[in-house]
Amino acid sequence: MPGFVEWGLELVRRASSDLSPDVEAVVRRGRDAEPEGSTARNVLDSILENVEMSRADGTPICQDTGLTSFFVHLPKGYDAEAIRADLQEAIRQATKLGYLRPNSVHPITEKNTGDNVGVDLPHIEFEPAADDAVTIDLILKGGGSENCGAQYRLPDASIKAGRDLAGVERCVIDAVHKAQGQGCAPGILGICIGGDRAGSYMGAKKQLLRHLDDVNPDPKLAELEATLLSKCNQLGIGPMGFGGLTTLLGVKIGWMHRHPASFFVSIAYCCWADRRRRLVVRDGVAQVL
Amino acid sequence: MKKEPIRLVLPASEETLRALRIGDEVLITGTVVTARDMAHKYMVEKKPDSLRDILTGGLIYHCGPIMVKEGDGWRIVSAGPTTSSREEPYQADVIETYRLAGVIGKGGMGEKTSAGLKKCGAVYFHAVGGAGTLLAKRVKKVREVRMLEEFGVPEAFWVLEVVDFPVVVTMDSVGGSLHREVLEASSIQRKELLGL
User: Fold this and answer.
1) A260 vs A44: CA distance, rounded Å
2) Which residues, in sequence order, are bridge partners of residue B108?
3) Which residues from A are below 8 Å from B2, CB to CB?
4) B3 has pLDDT over 90
């Protein structure tokens, strides 16, 4: 009888090797928009070829399989600690099978644990589920893109950003310019407005769980997402930072209540290889979406 | 019109390398050696002569691959480039010490490396970031590995034989840098968008 070790392993395999179709569709649109014969189009062609090869072979899209984060929604009656242990075991097996690269380095001794299990690795969060299904969202986020994340504290005079949505817009444009091609552009932004420093960064990361073709339920934020996508693509940074029309694939914005004294804008930069998948277990039947 | 890529076979003459220009699309055949953060610190601090046989005239590849042990050998599973800018403090020194033909990486490097390329007639090649499976398939043989015990899988020196490995020249030996050009152009756009 398969359980969360087997299901978790399959979730990791799919996330690592099978790019979500909503991301692939936007890469393809970007490819079609770039001029024929341009380096930008050639890069996007290589990306699409790599996506197809990885899916066919079941091999990691990118060798940097990043840090692993699980977001679990758990109905009443499940043992969270048992699921945690199972997911850690799934990560160990996935590393042995080459679905994941060992990415867990001790910051003081420099020693790699070799199995992607360490302090807060994999990162696992539990929340109560709304119905009787267990859902587990997984993100694999590479180090190069993580290094391009940013947090602004408004007001910020250096970019004339005040404490409003116009100010948020300026932060994001500035951050995308700073990132250039370093985060493996074209990128996807998860943004959180408000919160405290730590919560705001995690809120930004969780925006990356949204599908690129969804629409923000808040019309003001939906408009800002569209505006930012268009404006950032005018920067001309392009795929890999070689220049071109496709600098970003998507922008997703959420918010949290803030302290009166603090106004943070947090930005999680995700590379084009936005590796996320969801496991749903209902009545003992598992499905990876 | 799509330009035909240039085929580069290593070892190459200094004249061949110096003729490459930013924007050139190149297919590389020959030996490349992976080296990233720990390796660069080690090469600069220790300058071991024992690495000359694998490095001189070859290319360093900024890459931490996924390798699976099979019998006595290794299978390369996924092997795209990692961000090069972290090696900026070391790169020019490493190129000169080991007489490299150049470097493969992603994201480009700074002015110190640019000066080093100019001095030594070397080139910075950019591979497509994230294209791990596609690039691993261009590795025809994993010849050997050094410092595996000390550095671990992602950071070890993996000696790879590649055939038609696809890259773009983004920094050349005459001081050209596509990264500098895109930064300058996008900085003008940024100023306009922000009204600064």
Assistant:
1) 44
2) none
3) 36-37, 42
4) no
Convert the pLDDT of each residue in B89-122 to its tens digit: 999 999 999 999 999 999 999 999 999 999 999 9
Query: What is the ipTM for the molecules in this complex?
Result: 0.93
User: Closest to B193 (Cβ–Cβ): which among A42, A234, A240?
Assistant: A234
Tell me if chain B has a CB within 8 Å of the CB of A101: yes
Strand (E) or helix (H) holding B112: helix B111-120
Cα(B185)–Cα(B196) distance, rounded to whole angstroms?
15
Q: Which two tokens stand for residue A109?
A: 């001794």
Contact A63, B64 (CB under 8 A): yes
Strand-strand pairing, A150-153 and A264-270: antiparallel
Burial of A156 by CB count in 10 Å (0-12 exposed, 13-18 middle, 19+ buried)? middle
CATH numbers and ranges of domains, chain B = 6-194 (3.20.130.10)
What residues pair up with A253 in beta bridges, in sequence order?
A191
Listed by number, the residues of chain A in 188-227 with a beta carbon closer than 8 Å to a beta carbon of chain B are none
Residue B49, token pair as written in the block: 């002569």
Of A102, A143, A237, the CB nearest to B152: A102
> Taking the CA atoms of chain A, what radius of gyration do you get in angstroms?
19
pLDDT per residue as tens digits for the range B142-194? 999 999 999 989 999 999 999 999 999 999 999 999 999 999 999 999 999 99
Nearest CA to A276 out of A183, A185, A182, A210 is that of A210
Give the pLDDT band of residue B2 (cuts 50, 70, 90).
low
B105 touches chain A (CB under 8 A): no
pLDDT on residue A8 = 98
State the average pLDDT over residues A171-196: 98
Active site residue B126: no
H/E element holding B92? helix B88-98
Give the domains, in start order, of chain A with CATH numbers. 4-15+60-142+275-288 (3.30.360), 144-270 (no CATH)
The separation between the first and the last C-alpha atoms of chain A, rounded to the nearest angstrom, is 21
B94 CB-side CA count, 13 A: 27
The answer to whether residues B113 and B88 touch, using CB atoms and an 8 Å cutoff, is: yes
